[in-house]
Design goal:
Elements: H1 5-8, H2 12-30, H3 39-69, H4 81-84, H5 88-137
Helix pairs in contact: 2-5, 3-5
């Protein structure tokens, strides 16, 4: 069987480091995510903005369609399309402009929510890493004398 001589000569500190990484996973699963100041408010504001933007997307679509289908009651069938439907360009502008602008707002609010969630998870991971590293390197935990090191 293949044998790696580098792995056979692994120092004791490298084995301790592996033990730290094993403990980080276990500690992270047990820890709650870090609740940073303002994180809940940012998530709530982003959720409200997201909800409001979707309402405006629907409103822009409905309003634009109403403007597109509006027919001037004074116009006759022999008039041009622009005279029979005077607000068609306003409707097209409202649908396209409103949709694009509100999609940007939806993207920004989802980015804020994802960033806050990511920071919370990373904070929990690094907190667990710090706790695992302190527990492994503490000589009193293993019954050793700190002066022997």
């Amino acid at each position: 069987m293949w044998n790696n001589s580098v792995m056979d000569n692994t120092s004791e500190s490298a084995k301790t480091d592996q033990h730290v990484w094993d403990r980080v996973g276990a500690i992270t699963r047990k820890r709650r995510f870090t609740d940073y100041p303002g994180a809940r408010q940012a998530t709530f504001a982003a959720s409200c903005l997201n909800w409001f933007a979707w309402i405006l997307v629907a409103g822009c679509g409905i309003g634009g369609l109403l403007l597109l289908t509006y027919t001037d009651p004074a116009a006759r069938s022999y008039h041009s399309f622009g005279e029979r439907h005077p607000f068609v360009w306003h409707g097209i502008t409202l649908v396209l402009g409103g949709f694009l602008q509100m999609m940007v707002v939806v993207m920004i609010s989802n980015f804020v929510k994802a960033t806050v969630s990511f920071q919370s998870e990373v904070g929990a991971f690094f907190g667990a890493f710090k706790e695992a590293a302190v527990n492994v390197s503490d000589p009193h935990r293993w019954g050793g004398d700190p002066l022997d090191a």
